[in-house]
Specification:
CATH superfamily of the largest domain in chain B: Response regulator
CATH class of the largest domain in chain B: Alpha Beta
Oligomer: heterotrimer
Order of helices and strands of chain B: HEHEHEHEEHEHEHEHEHEHHHEEEEH
Helix content of chain B: 40-55%
CATH architecture of one domain in chain C: 3-Layer(aba) Sandwich
Chains: A mainly alpha, B alpha/beta, C alpha/beta
Largest sheet of chain C: 6 strands, mixed
Number of helices of chain B: 13
Number of strands of chain C: 10
């Protein structure tokens, strides 16, 4: 009995850590509707700053706790700067576009931290006065765990008081529920958002700082926590701080007991819990309908068929690409294959997000299922490349059919997070099921058939498949099905009122997107010769997301532009030292110059050029 | 609108690959170009010392007149921790930079990916750092050799020490991925072979870099083992050590711990370094052989810091390449492969080693000792050098583990 | 035979009776107005007939078939069109495309992934737009339209399925008085020509008395009066609760729930 009580305490201590990371994220999302990928980076900065302060102050009790608060304050200021300098300029951008900026910040902060604190892990001091264990029912419990168990609810109570007893807090709650109303009340929205960012960032910093007595400060801290922090926020209900607390307790305590029975479960447990919660409660435990949506953006212009000149330019581009083997070296062809794969992947995600209005944070699931489907068809079923190239997209379609059934019942960020959960669960199974998938040793030897194995031949094969896939998607976008899917995104009520079963259409759209992502994964698998669980990973999903958003979600060419720019720039900058900083800075610059994506930015540039050249002629 | 968008895309498409084509250093006749790939941004703590190691080796070779009058040029790239990126880079090195061979990689999956690529492209690949047994055994191929003592070898070194303990009931804790699983399987097999009376009473598999140390420690404690075999490393190790010592998991309980004596993992533990853990690792400047002292001095002079495990792996990679190029009749892959078979590296900071012809594994060894805090600095004490050859299956047995070519 | 029979329709939200025991019939070609102060239960009534809300009790029969529990899209298929109090259109499409979407659904081609949607049913769509006086706007993005035009567009969309019954929730809300009269005259013309039945809710009494064949008056969820315009004008209860100087401002939760 005492053993289980002690295990519960361990779970609760972890819950406090998790809650501190997640509550700031929840506040920021609740007020600003920004999905802040950089929250993990703020957490990591908090840990590094606290380490520096505490070790310099020669930690006494005072020095230690001063260090915690100083780190929280410093990170709060970093958050404020982020909001003031970058995100504030993007509030009118299409939904989720700010996410691209926070992604750029993740890259920048990674390299800044590396430059300042170095590559080696830093083990900070234990908390003075709380460095030992006390015995509770005979079991040793670290004193610091007990302190954390207290700090979590204390912070929760503090936030509750702030939200219910101050004018600012009441405005924050109002903004969380209905943003337009706050604008209507004449509240200075900028001020509210800045304050929310400061508070959210400071809480992340505090969470990081309080980890010092438990773990070494490292450059992996940011990405290690971010996914779990989102999971906690979503289980609790976006914007609900109390929900985040309950979710943190749920996950941590479940994990503390699960490792006793089935230790391997840890890698997917939070995502399994999230999937179950979302299937049962589509807005999380304490979320309200609509709480998962961002602010309504600018209306999108109606689709136009390409003009004659547009068609000619496109044909010229495709021809130029197809002629490139004549002039370019083998390596350029390899890069172009990567580019084609990225374009098809991004186009399929754009079909889901831009056309269908179903945001996905886990689109890599279908890319990866396609890649593994093809690889297993070769390795296990002994099929040739041709058969595998059918098996891949088919596997993607099946995966999307299954997950789509659950996902289309949700909307907004909840839908996005359920797709992430699906991807992570598939990742976990692939990772764990060594006999079939090879685990993280992957599947090797998935090379093209002899006739397609030269770089040139495979390039043409990949171009035919990927351009064909993109063309097919484009065709569907212009078809009645594509139009009605977009209509359902604009107004589900209207779709129902003209006799549509929107969910079935969304399900079909989800499956189509999954099929084409699977196709991209198949082409990818044969171009690399091996498949590893990374293809199902969060990084792959995020790359796709960034391509779509960076390119411009409101334009059909957006994902293609985004994929092109992303792949080529990354290939170029990764040759340089501190390339993540440079890459992040480029992304931030693009985001600030083109707050509606590359497609929109180019369109404005074109208008500007026309005006200036027109003016020049007049003079 | 559509026109300009597409034209810009065309421009970008046309310009950037050209840029990469032009910007890269062209392979000159008087140089031997070698490609090098590693996870420099993903795992800087381990790959930076490694890079300094091979750079030192490279500078020494070129200062000494190169190989048969030709200088070596190493083109080094960051794989960003992604196998697919590593493949693309390898392709670029082979087809554009005309690299003679490729070496490097740290993460096992990237090592495997590049290994499979080298097989497909008939290029020699020296896997410097990845530990996975699969690279030379179950997924071994004609074109891939591996330098560092593998998971199996290091686990076997520890099993030998563990067998000398009284402990019968063992618990294991390892990160939940291939490396952790291989390390536990090898240790179990070797220890059971040496001591049929042992039993394994508990296994913990925390996710790599995301250990819930408190719960893991308590689960281990609950099994009341006589001794513990640990495979966690880096940040996970620090958390495990801290939680374990605070919760008295290690009281009167021997711990055998893989790689924990490597300075990359040991130094961050600072004054919380556990006392008396049996570990594999690298005692650094405490090694007093002539070859090592010369290396350590040169390293400190060059970089202003003592060498780490990665440094020695990087340096020995370069020594291996030097021996290879001196032995090979030409830079053609077939000649290189012929030279790699049984290639002897007569002298290195860790002593002589050779690449076994049967399974392509180098016999470079590791150091086995105990952890201790000496004058406030974490160190390995009572260490001995374990020769790699002693912990490998015979060449005939090893050859059987490899797929038929 | 009547087109629609509503019997004992009841809906409660918490303790509040939004609609209580409402029964009425609707004849073919009839133009029926549903009036009452805010919170009287008009929209709730509408939503139950259209399938957007499930009644706690009661039945709704369309040509003898019980439609309670069917989703709105099924009820639409059976010939019940609908316009909304706050317009619902596809913002990222042109005016014509909005009507084309309804036509595509009408012709059951919503899963067609091959044809070019913009080229389907153009003539039919333009005819419907012409009927509602929207032909000049056909190529404009829907997001640019004035509110009154959106209402007319919704009417065109609703007509695409050749409904037998049209539910119009406050068709003139938010419009200038002159526009209101024009819109309702237009609607009345279409109704007369196509022979369809309409139920509409309305606040503007001029509109109601000008066009409704029959009027139902709701107050606090109950049907308190029924009759022609003249009868309703003469009804003492109605005068008291509704037309009298002190109109009852009931809570409007029920209306917006």
């Amino acid at each position: 009995m005492s053993f289980y009580f002690a295990q519960l305490l361990t779970g609760l201590a972890n819950a406090s850590s998790l809650f501190l990371i997640a509550c700031g994220l929840s506040i920021i999302f609740g007020v600003t509707r920004i999905v802040n990928f950089a929250h993990g980076s703020l957490f990591m900065l908090g840990a590094y700053i606290a380490y520096s302060v505490v070790t310099r102050l020669d930690a006494g009790v005072f020095g230690f706790w001063f260090g915690m608060l100083a780190a929280a304050l410093a990170v709060g200021l970093v958050g404020l700067a982020m909001e003031f300098l970058i995100l504030r300029r993007l509030y009118r951008a299409p939904e989720l576009f700010q996410l691209v900026a926070t992604f750029g910040l993740v890259l920048v902060i990674q390299d800044v931290a590396l430059a300042i604190w170095g590559a080696a892990d830093l083990l900070g001091p234990r908390a003075p006065g709380l460095a030992r264990a006390v015995r509770i029912f005979g079991e040793p419990i670290p004193q610091y765990d007990l302190a954390l168990i207290g700090i979590g609810p204390l912070v929760l109570a503090g936030i509750w008081l702030l939200f219910h007893r101050t004018r600012w807090g009441i405005l924050v709650r109002a903004a969380t529920q209905d943003r337009d109303m706050v604008g209507a009340l004449g509240v200075n929205q900028n001020w509210l958002f800045s304050a929310a960012f400061f508070l959210g960032a400071a809480l992340a910093g505090l969470g990081g700082a309080l980890q010092i007595p438990r773990e070494a400060v490292s450059l992996q801290m940011d990405l290690n926590v971010i996914a779990e922090a989102f999971v906690v926020v979503v289980i609790g209900g976006m914007g609900s701080v109390a929900g985040a607390f309950v979710a943190a307790v749920l996950i941590s305590v479940l994990n503390a007991f699960a490792v006793l029975v089935f230790p391997q479960i840890s890698i997917v447990l939070p995502f399994v819990v999230m999937a179950v919660v979302l299937v049962l409660r589509p807005h999380g435990l304490f979320g309200k309908p609509g709480s998962g949506h961002g602010a309504p953006g600018e209306p999108e212009a109606p689709l136009r068929h390409m003009s004659g000149r547009g068609r000619m330019a496109l044909a010229a581009l495709v021809l130029a690409m197809l002629a490139s083997p004549a002039v370019a070296g083998d390596f350029t062809l390899i890069l172009l294959v990567d580019l084609l794969v990225a374009m098809l992947f991004a186009a399929s995600l754009h079909f889901l997000m831009g056309v269908g209005g179903m945001v996905s944070f886990g689109h890599a699931a279908f890319f990866g299922i396609g890649a593994y489907g093809a690889a297993l068809a070769v390795k296990t079923l002994g099929l040739g490349m041709g058969g595998a190239m059918l098996a891949g997209p088919l596997a993607g379609a099946l995966g999307a059919l299954v997950f789509g059934w659950f996902c289309v019942r949700l909307s907004g960020v909840y839908l996005a997070m359920l797709t992430l959960a699906a991807a992570q669960i598939v990742w976990g199974i692939t990772f764990q099921w060594q006999d079939v998938t090879g685990g993280d040793d992957g599947i090797l030897g998935v090379w093209p058939a002899p006739w397609a194995s030269s770089d040139t031949a495979y390039f043409y094969l990949a171009a035919a498949i990927c351009l064909g896939g993109i063309w097919a998607l484009r065709r569907v976008v212009h078809s009645p099905f594509g139009y009605l899917l977009r209509g359902g995104r604009d107004s589900p009520v209207r779709a129902e009122a003209i006799g549509l079963d929107l969910r079935r259409h969304q399900w079909a759209g989800f499956t189509l997107a999954g099929t084409l992502a699977g196709l991209a994964g198949t082409v990818f698998a044969f171009s690399k010769g091996s498949v590893f669980p990374d293809v199902l990973g969060i990084a792959q999903s995020v790359d796709g997301l960034i391509m779509v958003l960076l390119g411009g979600i409101h334009a059909l060419a957006g994902p293609l532009l985004g994929a092109g720019v992303f792949v080529l720039i990354e290939d170029w900058v990764s040759r340089l030292d501190f390339w993540r900083f440079i890459f992040g800075a480029i992304i931030l610059a693009v985001v600030l110059l083109a707050p509606d994506g590359l497609a929109g930015g180019l369109e404005r540039l074109r208008r500007l050029l026309r005006r200036t050249t027109g003016g020049g002629a007049a003079r | 609108m559509a026109r300009l968008k597409r034209r810009s895309l065309l421009g970008a498409l046309a310009a950037l690959p050209m840029l990469t084509t032009l910007a890269g250093p062209a392979a000159a006749q008087d140089r031997i170009v070698i490609g090098e790939i590693n996870s420099y941004t993903r795992l800087p703590a381990f790959t930076e010392p490694y890079k300094k190691g091979w750079q030192l080796g490279l500078e020494e070779i070129n200062a000494g007149g190169g190989i048969k009058g030709q200088e070596i040029e190493v083109i080094s790239r960051d794989d960003t921790g992604d196998p697919a990126t590593a493949i693309r880079i390898a392709e670029e090195m082979i087809s554009k930079d005309e690299a003679t061979m490729i070496f490097g990689t740290f993460l096992s999956n990237i090592g495997l990916a590049v290994s499979d690529f080298s097989k497909q492209n008939k290029t020699l690949f020296l896997a410097s750092e990845p530990l996975s047994d699969a690279i030379v055994w179950s997924n071994g191929n004609r074109y891939t050799y591996r330098l560092r003592p593998s998971t199996h070898m290091q686990a076997a070194m520890l099993a030998e020490e563990a067998a000398k303990l009284d402990a019968v009931r063992w618990a294991t804790v390892a990160p939940n991925y291939a490396y952790g699983r291989d390390a536990v399987a090898a240790f179990k097999a070797e220890l059971t072979r040496l001591r049929p009376d042992v039993e394994f009473v508990e296994e913990q598999w925390p996710p790599v870099f995301k250990i819930d140390a408190g719960s893991t420690v308590r689960a281990l404690e609950a099994a009341k083992p006589d001794a513990i075999y640990n495979v966690t490393f880096a940040g996970d190790l620090a958390k495990f050590v801290r939680e374990g010592s605070i919760r008295m998991l290690f009281e009167d309980r021997p711990v055998v711990s893989l790689l924990s004596g490597e300075p990359e993992y040991l130094l961050p533990l600072g004054d919380e370094t556990p006392d008396g853990w049996i570990v594999t690792g690298y005692p650094g400047t405490d090694i007093e052989t002539e070859a090592h002292q010369a290396f350590a001095q040169a390293y400190i002079d060059r970089w202003g810091e003592p060498p780490m495990t990665g440094s020695i792996v990087g340096y020995n990679s370069m020594l291996s390449i030097k021996a290879l190029l001196e032995k090979a009749e030409s830079l053609e892959t077939e000649d290189l492969l012929a030279a790699m078979e049984g290639l002897e590296v007569p002298s290195s900071p860790t002593g002589p080693f050779r690449f076994r012809a049967a399974d392509h594994q180098a016999t470079m060894g590791a150091y086995v000792g105990r952890t201790a805090l000496v004058d406030g600095t974490p160190k390995m004490v009572d260490w001995v050098y374990a020769h790699g050859a002693d912990y490998l299956p015979s060449e005939a047995e090893a050859a059987k583990m490899r797929p038929a070519e | 035979m009547s087109l629609l029979k509503v019997r004992g329709l009841t809906k409660k939200f918490g303790g509040l009776v939004a609609v209580g025991d409402v029964s009425f019939d609707l004849a073919r070609g009839e133009f029926l107005a549903l009036i009452g102060p805010n919170g009287a239960g008009k929209t709730t009534c509408f939503n139950m007939i259209g399938g957007y809300l499930r009644p706690d009790r009661g039945s709704v029969r369309l040509e003898g078939r019980d439609i309670v529990g069917l989703p709105p899209r099924r009820i639409w298929r059976m010939g019940v069109g609908r316009t909304f109090q706050i317009t619902e259109t596809f913002r990222s499409m042109t005016v014509r495309e909005n009507v084309q979407m309804a036509l595509i659904s009408h012709h059951r081609r919503s899963f067609d992934m091959v044809s070019a949607a913009a080229k389907l049913y153009v003539a039919e769509a333009d005819a419907l737009l012409a009927d509602t006086g929207m032909e000049a706007h056909a190529g404009r993005p829907c997001s640019e339209l004035a509110y009154g035009d959106l209402k007319r567009l919704e009417l065109a969309i609703a007509m695409a399925h050749k409904p037998r019954l049209l539910l119009m929730d406050e068709p003139t809300a938010g419009m200038a008085p002159s526009e209101r009269v024009a819109l309702m005259a237009l609607t009345a013309g279409i109704v007369a020509r196509e022979g369809l039945s309409v139920i509409f809710t309305e606040h503007d009494m001029d509109v109601v008395f000008a066009h409704a064949h029959r009027i139902l008056v709701l107050n606090r969820g109950r049907l308190i009066a029924e009759g022609t315009g003249d009868e309703i004008r003469a009804d003492a209860t109605v005068r008291e609760v509704y037309l009298g100087g002190g109109a009852i401002r009931a809570r409007d939760e029920a209306d917006h729930a």
